């Protein structure tokens, strides 16, 4: 008897591989990002050069969730924080999941992958997201253990010119539960325009 659609067997059989992103993946990443933007308005402002947006100057590493056939279903990156207070913290950024690949825990799998990578590298994790009412991103991060530290004004505006507020998060370490967000004092987050 075959597995029913949506059953645990189908989810396990179709679980993608998470691997380091390669240069040859960028065109598919841009296609996936375009589908996400059209569905969810992420990034809030479509970048003039999406390949460059996926490769910000402070990029440390990026990963994709890839199906067996090679389709890019998800993406996540980490980048350096440009602050003297950053210490051993990096910023999780550019997390997106193809609309057709949702409801399969890909975002959680990618974030878990980053958590393991950061722990191995001895980095703490931060991130920021736009402060929107009932934001699925805010709900996801708060449900997965990220702690909201503060909210700031972005140095960029929405497509219609309105100011944008950013919610800043830190992922508390299990060994250091009193970690502080290294950016909280300055309130400045560079290149947050599309996160």
From TrEMBL:
GO terms for molecular function: acyltransferase activity, transferring groups other than amino-acyl groups. SUPFAM superfamilies: Acyl-CoA N-acyltransferases (Nat). It holds the Pfam family Acetyltransf_7. Residues 172-195 are annotated as: Disordered. The keyword Transferase applies. Residues 16-171 form the N-acetyltransferase domain. Keywords: Acyltransferase, Transferase. InterPro entries: Acyl_CoA_acyltransferase (IPR016181), Bact_Acetyltransf (IPR050832), GNAT_dom (IPR000182). The keyword Thylakoid does not apply. PANTHER family: AMINOALKYLPHOSPHONATE N-ACETYLTRANSFERASE-RELATED-RELATED. This is Acetyltransferase (GNAT) family protein.
């Amino acid at each position: 008897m075959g597995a029913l659609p949506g059953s645990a067997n189908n989810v396990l059989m179709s679980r993608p591989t998470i691997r380091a992103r390669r240069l040859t993946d960028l065109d598919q990443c841009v296609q996936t990002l375009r589908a996400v933007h059209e569905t969810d308005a992420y990034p809030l402002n479509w970048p003039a050069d999406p390949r460059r947006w996926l490769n910000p100057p402070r990029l440390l590493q990026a990963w994709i969730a890839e199906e067996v056939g090679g389709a890019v279903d998800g993406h996540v990156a980490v980048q350096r924080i440009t602050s003297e207070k950053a210490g051993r913290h990096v910023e999780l950024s550019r997390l997106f999941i193809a609309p057709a690949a949702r409801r399969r825990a890909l975002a959680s799998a990618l974030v878990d992958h980053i958590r393991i990578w950061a722990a191995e590298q001895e980095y703490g994790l931060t991130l920021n997201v736009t402060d929107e009412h009932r934001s699925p991103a805010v709900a996801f991060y708060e449900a997965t253990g990220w702690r909201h530290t503060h909210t700031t004004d972005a140095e960029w505006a929405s497509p219609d010119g309105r100011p944008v507020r950013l919610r800043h998060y830190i992922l508390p370490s299990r060994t250091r539960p009193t970690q502080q967000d290294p950016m909280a004092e300055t309130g400045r987050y560079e290149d947050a325009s599309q996160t």
